[in-house]
Amino acid sequence: MLKSELRQQIRDTKRLFTQQQLSEWSLPIVRRLKERLRDARVVMAYYSLPDEVCTHQLIDDLVAEGKTVLLPKVLDDERMELRRYTGPQDLREGAFHIMEPVGAPFTEFLQIDVALIPGMAFDAQGRRLGRGKGYYDRLLTSVDCKTLGVCFDFQKVREVPVGEHDVPVDEVI
Ligand SMILES: Nc1ncnc2c1ncn2[C@@H]1O[C@H](COP(=O)(O)OP(=O)(O)OP(=O)(O)O)[C@@H](O)[C@H]1O
Ligand SMILES: [Mg+2]
Questions:
Q1: How confident is the prediction for the chain on average, in pLDDT?
Q2: Quick check: CB of 132 below 6 Å from ligand 1?
Q3: CA-to-CA distance for 135 and 14, rounded, in angstroms?
């Protein structure tokens, strides 16, 4: 199956569910994530779009626990940087309607303990299908930490088609 076909299949499946359903399904996933992040001090996360596993409460809880939370900021057609998130007041809408923190770039990549990586689909080997721009594949070449793929159960597929640039995740939650 081609990447484009799998993306379309996931998009079609997502349309079968309401926002309410996706929010409900996010709760146990976020509980599992919190458990996995208990010992992490610096966490790279993502600020979820409406069709992704909801991370809004999670990142505020991580900040409240004293952890350093980093979110991506889209710079151009290819690159993202990381910025520190300290609370909702930091956020502004950026490219693709994604909320991103204002502030200086975080470049201490070696300090990152765990990264949460959203995806359109993952397989059991950690192969990942994103939204098709390669942003995470480029960003992940700079980080060297445990990577957790985050998705709903219906986004876990038997095999994700990949190319040479695709960076797999260590584990899918
Ligand atoms: N490290 C890289 N260097 C150069 N090109 C890259 C790199 N990573 C990805 N690309 C290119 O980016 C394009 C999109 O990649 P791909 O289809 O894997 O996106 P994706 O992983 O689904 O999206 P995303 O990571 O943004 O969620 C491809 O043409 C790919 O060759
Ligand atoms: Mg990719």
A1: 97
A2: yes
A3: 22
pLDDT tier, 100 (very low <50, low <70, confident <90, very high otherwise): very high
Split into its structural domains, the chain has a count of 1
Under DSSP, the state recorded for 88 is G
Confidence of residue 83 (pLDDT cuts 50, 70, 90): very high
Looking up residue 8, the CATH number of its domain turns out to be: 3.40.50.10420
Query: Does residue 136 line the site of ligand 1, with CB under 6 A?
Result: yes
Ligand nearest 2 Cα, by number? 1
Structural domain span for residue 34: 3-172
Amino acid letter, residue 12: D
Q: Is 130 in the pocket of ligand 1 (CB under 6 A)?
A: yes
pLDDT for residue 1 is more than 90: no
